[in-house]
Amino acid sequence: MKAKSVFEQYLAKIGKLEPIQLGDDKEIQVTKEDNDFLKTHLLGQIKSNNTIIWLAIGMLVVIFLLDIYLILYSLKEPEVIKVVFNGTFTVSSLFLIINWLRKLWAEKSLMDISLCVAQDMPPEQAAKYIASIYWRIVNKGFEK
Amino acid sequence: MNPQSISKKIIKPENCIMAFGIPVSKKRFKDHQLSNKADFAKRFINWSQYHHQFVSNIEKVIPAIIQLGVSIEPELRLKDFEHLFNKNKIDVVILFSHWNQNSIEFDDGLAHIQSIVRKIPQDYYGILDLCVCHPDDFTKILRECRPNCLIRYTHQKATPYIWLYFYTVLFNYLKDYNSTYLEALETVIKEFQTDNKGKLDHES
């Protein structure tokens, strides 16, 4: 997950990945520069994520058009139509494509919101938000 | 018995009790985050972080420690602290908790060192092992008020998961060898210092 990697770099930079100690801990100061660091890294990832999403959608459109062409071209050959339908429109292949796009879209949404946080929230609040999301991602499936 | 004799006594895991003053369950963690008496849980962003950095290790380590024969007291309250010293066959009380401004955390909140000292019986001749970060003031008072009690503590920052694994090794050592508690500590600390480049430091 790219968002996780960006959050990890940011939290490591501000020292919030270190394990909490059993004694007095000094408060870590987060600055506007840290927000800028997060913003820059998120923008880079959002750009590359958008490219992947557009490529994926483009691929789907191309496959769809190719299928339409093959169907129209082979209207008198039911066997070819059967192969085309089995190859691209079966429930399992549609499920895989939709699931992949859903994950890409969820990641895009998370990064878009995080970008707003980095741009608009005070550094301390932004750090709390990112840490909260990060630990949920890291611990997903392990906690009871 | 006196501090000299307890320091020479062979200790087995069954003679040890390990008590946790900090939360080990999600419910208590959430309660502590909202409580104005607690402190440790508030240093964590959410349960996910606490679980990842501490509780997941507890879940791995505690069953093994119990199997070795050590008694466990999760989420210890201050009012129950004194009962630990009156248990049969218990020579070593290990308090695993958080230190903050002359207070140690218990399940019912931070307790000032004076109130903790009062919970330790005058005639306690065992070992109190404090797994909290640099409780120097507490140990000074304890030495004055409870001279029969042998105290072991760390004066460096303690990372909870490292200490959990440290105690697992320590209890295994006590089970396998006929050793005093202090000898076992020295040996295991040396091993950990080699592995962790001197991260563990202690005094007794």
Describe the structure.
The complex is a heterodimer of chains A (144) and B (204). Chain A has 144 residues and is mainly α. Chain A contains five helices and no strands. Chain A is elongated. The two termini of chain A are 23 Å apart. By secondary structure, chain B is of the alpha/beta class. Chain B is globular, with a radius of gyration of 16 Å. The A-B interface holds A 19-25, 128, 131-132, 135-136, 138-139, 142-144 and B 22, 26, 40, 43-49, 51-56, 97-101, 131-134, 157-161, 163.
Global morphology of chain A? elongated
Query: What percentage of the residues of chain B does DSSP assign to strands (E)?
Result: 15-25%
Class by SSE composition of chain B: alpha/beta
Helices and strands of chain B, in order, run as HEHHEHEEEEHEHEHH
Count of β-strands of chain A: 0
Question: Any idea what the radius of gyration of chain A is?
Answer: 22 Å
Number of distinct helices of chain B:
8
Q: Summarize the main sheet of chain A.
A: none
- As laid out across the biggest beta sheet of chain B, the strand order is 2-1-3-7-8
Rg of chain B (C-alpha, Å):
16 Å
The helical percent of chain B reads: 40-55%
